[in-house]
Amino acid sequence: MPARRQEKPSLSQAEKDRATAILARLEAAYPDARVELEFSNPFELLVATILAAQCTDRRVNQVTRTLFQKYRAPEDYLRVPLRELEEDIRPTGFFRNKAKAIQACCRKLVEEFGGQVPTELDALASLPGVGRKTASIVLGNAAGQQTIAVDTHVKRVSRRLGLTASNNPLRIERDLSELIPKDRWTRATNVLVFHGRYTCKARNPDCGRCPVADLCSSPDKKPGGSVTEGGSP
């Protein structure tokens, strides 16, 4: 007789209450938490997010203020030589790979989606240069959907706060989706990103001013201090 598949134990109310308390404090600490990339529609956010790989949002915004005046639709990116697009986005770094990805993405948008950004997560994530994280960012912040986008900040903060024990983005997304009510997924993602970017940094996190320090489960946290070298990522 085949062994019965073990089901993951359901979360306790205490675990959910703890997550709720953490998010409430973070929301109070970062009331203006949002995607810091500048955009006016889903397509612009899609391009900006591709450009943001290994680049600061500030630098991307400097580039897209001009870029989005020149290129307003997927077809526009396909009308110029690759070299021209490379020069237009050069300041964001890795510009050759990014230019290829943007043109490939735009080509698929035109050929398979009528030039429109798909509103289904799997379809959007299937575009060249776009993965689940980027698709979730776009749908959550430019299409009014509730999504959890697991970037480096969300991963680090979620692990340090004991909201997940996993290193796998899909597993982290699942763990957070079980702890957080769906109508707060996008908001929760943005406050976790802000907390990771401005307080719970990868190196020298500012635990002394952390609004959830007393709820933090990082084993290397020092009271009023920082997470020691080699501790939880």
Question: How does this model look, in words?
Answer:
The chain is mainly α and 233 residues long. It folds into two domains: 13-33 and 148-215, Orthogonal Bundle (Endonuclease Iii, domain 2); 42-142, Hypothetical protein, domain 2 (Endonuclease III, domain 1), CATH 1.10.340. Helices cover 53% and strands 0% of the residues. It has eleven helices and no strands. It has helices at residues 13-29, 42-51, 57-70, 74-78, 82-89, 95-113, 121-125, 132-142, 152-160, 169-179, 185-198. Helix 2 packs antiparallel against helix 8 (132-142) and helix 5 (82-89) crosses helix 6 (95-113).
Summarize the structure.
The chain has 233 residues and is mainly alpha-helical. It is 53% helix and 0% strand.
Secondary structure tally, helices: 11
H/E element order: HHHHHHHHHHH
Query: What is the mean pLDDT?
Result: 92
Distance between the termini: 42 Å
In angstroms, what is the radius of gyration?
A: 20 Å
**Strand fraction band?**
under 5%
Question: Under CATH, the topology of the largest domain is which?
Answer: Endonuclease III, domain 1
**Unreliable segments (pLDDT under 50, ≥5 consecutive)?**
226-233
Largest sheet: none
Number of domains: 2
Known CATH architecture of the largest domain: Orthogonal Bundle
Class computed from helices, strands and strand pairing: mainly alpha
Q: Write down the overall geometry.
A: elongated
Q: Please give the CATH class of the largest domain.
A: Mainly Alpha
How helical, in percent, are the residues?
40-55%
Strand segment count: 0
CATH superfamily of the largest domain: Hypothetical protein, domain 2
